[in-house]
Amino acid sequence: MQIGRFFSHGAPLTPLSDGHVPIGVRTSGAPALWRRGITGEGRVAAVIDSGIDADHPDLARRIVDYIDLTGDGRQDDLGHGTHVAGTICACGRISGVAPGASLLVIKVIGRTASCDEGLVAQAIRIAVDWRGPRGERVTAINISLGGSGDSPKLHDAICYAVAQNVEPVCAAGNGGNSRDNTPVQTYPAAYREAVEVGAVRADRTSAMHFSSSESIDLCAVGESVDSTWPLRLGAPYACLSGTSMAAAHITGLLLLEDQMWEVINGRSFRDEAERWRFATINVAPLDLPPKQQGLGLGFARADLLPAEALCHAVGRRFRR
User: Fold this and answer.
1) What is the pLDDT of residue 246?
2) Domain limits, the chain
3) What angle do CA 220, 275, 309 make, to 5 degrees?
4) Which are the catalytic amino acids?
5) For 86-101, what is each residue's pLDDT tens digit?
6) Which of 12-26, 154-168, 241-255 has the lowest mean pLDDT?
7) Which fold has domain 4-304?
8) Is residue 57 classed exposed, middle or buried when 0-12, 13-18 and 19+ CB atoms within 10 A define those classes?
9) Residue 208 has what pLDDT?
10) How many CB atoms within 10 Å of residue 148?
């Protein structure tokens, strides 16, 4: 399994000012929820990737646990995991979708930029079974990597996550050309139980070279995405493109929606099916074929909150 097909290297970036909100985060509608107190506080996303720069000032306080399954050490040698994590919940000079949320980091990709399906399956199960110092559980798992081969072990791990009310969010891959007649299947994204995320531009049009597929569920901005970058690789921020970046936006939105639901209903989601039904309400359909957008753009619906809810509480998906 690889991450190389899931993002393209871009340029170093210097945010214009403190609290820079990237265009993808703005397009998701997340800032409207922040103004109502919904920031993902108390929620945890697992990032199964190349690790994270644990010393990055915009991410260090977001990391609640860090597990290295590679033996290469806790650093991020590739930058991919750090960039994905920043889009989910960076809080500092740059803002992610859910800036109040926390991260469980599980490193499965080392210097070789690849790993086998068994290691990813192991990481998924670790994420589902993990409990934080205050009893926290993972809400969503970001898996911005994949391969072309079906793996029963990997599929079983995805099904295990869903059965335990943890949403696996997977990048669709960058092996296509965004045309409706050239679908690409990438695993684990293609599994029916996973949330497969495609990529669009910030203007909500097709983004070239990103995969289209009948199994795509949602889309998000995946082109020219500003986010965090490892300090040891020369710049604190970078602009990259790929479905990896799109998946991270959806993972962040799921964290916001988890807090939103609790504020609206006074309880947690009963199961993943209820979680997904709510997620499908938080969607903006686009003028694109279903194989490119799925149900549409993941979008924060602040209008669903009660008018009086300035939330201070630590406060889905219909099967095809």
Assistant:
1) 97
2) 4-304
3) 85
4) 49, 80, 244
5) 999 999 999 999 999 9
6) 12-26
7) Rossmann fold (3.40.50)
8) middle
9) 65
10) 14
